[in-house]
Design brief:
alpha/beta, TIM Barrel, eight-stranded mixed beta sheet, globular, about 30% helix, about 10% strand
Length: about 350
């Protein structure tokens, strides 16, 4: 594999509850050791395909599974000064694609200005939308704004059933999500080939997602028959054991069994396509991370000291080591998980 790297990084102690398995001298839930057992001596980054920019933790929702711990009262919001530096860096380094996320990125007061700047400089823009933000006061024109610019949308819809979805996102969010999808369809999203509308599923408990292709087929049947809704693709994401979901696992006594499940289902075929190998994640202050999950755990890119994007050269990232920890089992379990869905 081209992910082989003979440099063994210092393994962090982010999770203090690692323990020795009685049948092995290797610590349970030690991701680096598991890589090593499969002939992969650490991860290194391949060519950067995309820069993922987190515009802040402000959101109109506070979902139970949110790894960002986003919500209506969060004050971490990227300023225009930081956005401008990021956009300039992307232009100077000929970045082709920018993935904008949050929180609800649309609630950042400079969101539209940033997206316009990226588009004006010939970058492809993907926006990760929670759907219900389209119904927030002041965002009534958001669907039309997206349509005019042809922004690719990846929208969270954890389930096509009301009960399951509202267990994660709160009462009333199912109807709002369906209404938002119908609005997007009316503007051509999911129908016009130039207006891509993808959906994201994640489990509402301590288990892995089902097969992505078969679940997508079910989603399409149910949403079209029940609500007349069309979309392009469905991505299945595994819940990573961090932030709110980790707290949930601890409260329910499922943390240990879930971690064991993730490790038992480790699939080495997912490793070459891990999103950390092809993106750079940027937080609301402009600091860089190997992925959005490491960002939330404050694990700097490559175990280096904290760095700002605009202090780096794009070519410095190629072959740079990637920081890993026990939560990384979530991206490599079963068919794998990434911002683009399953991996194997």
């Amino acid at each position: 594999m081209d992910v082989l790297n003979d440099t063994i990084p210092v393994v962090s102690d982010t999770f203090s509850d690692l323990s020795l398995d009685s049948s092995s001298s290797i610590k349970r839930w030690n991701f680096f050791s598991t890589l090593h057992e499969n002939g992969i001596r650490g991860l290194t980054r391949a060519k950067i395909r995309e820069v993922q920019v987190n515009l802040g933790k402000l959101c109109n929702q506070a979902c139970n599974h949110c790894h960002v711990d986003a919500g209506p009262n969060r004050t971490e919001i990227m300023t225009w000064e930081v956005m401008e530096k990021i956009a300039r860096w992307c232009v100077d380094n000929q970045v082709e694609s920018v993935d904008v996320t949050g929180g609800a990125p649309e609630l950042n007061p400079n969101f539209r200005r940033f997206v316009n700047t990226c588009l004006q400089n010939n970058m492809l823009v993907t926006s990760r939308c929670n759907l219900t933000v389209l119904l927030v006061d002041g965002q009534e024109d958001l669907a039309a704004w997206y349509t005019k610019r042809g922004v690719k949308l990846i929208c969270s819809l954890p389930c096509y059933s009301k009960d399951n979805l509202e267990q994660q996102r709160g009462k009333g969010t199912f109807g709002q999500s369906i209404s938002a999808l119908q609005i997007l369809n009316k503007h051509g999203y999911g129908i016009n080939p130039n207006l891509e509308l993808d959906l994201v599923y994640n489990p509402n408990g301590a288990f892995l997602p089902p097969a992505q292709d078969s679940l997508e087929a079910t989603y399409k049947i149910r949403l079209e028959e029940d609500f007349g809704i069309h979309f392009n693709r469905l991505y299945t994401l595994t819940n990573l054991p961090i932030s709110r979901f980790r707290h949930y696992l601890k409260r329910t006594g499922e943390y240990e069994s879930y971690m064991n499940l993730l490790q038992e289902k480790f699939n080495p075929q997912t490793v070459p396509n891990l999103m950390c190998r092809h993106i750079i994640s940027v937080d609301w202050l402009g600091r860089i991370y190997d992925c959005d999950f490491n960002q939330m755990l404050d694990i700097p890119a490559g175990w280096h000291k904290p760095r700002y994007l605009w202090e780096q050269d794009l070519h410095q990232f190629t072959n740079d080591r990637i920081a890993v920890d026990s939560h990384c089992f979530g991206c490599t379990a079963g068919a794998g998980s990434s911002c683009g869905g399953s991996l194997a």
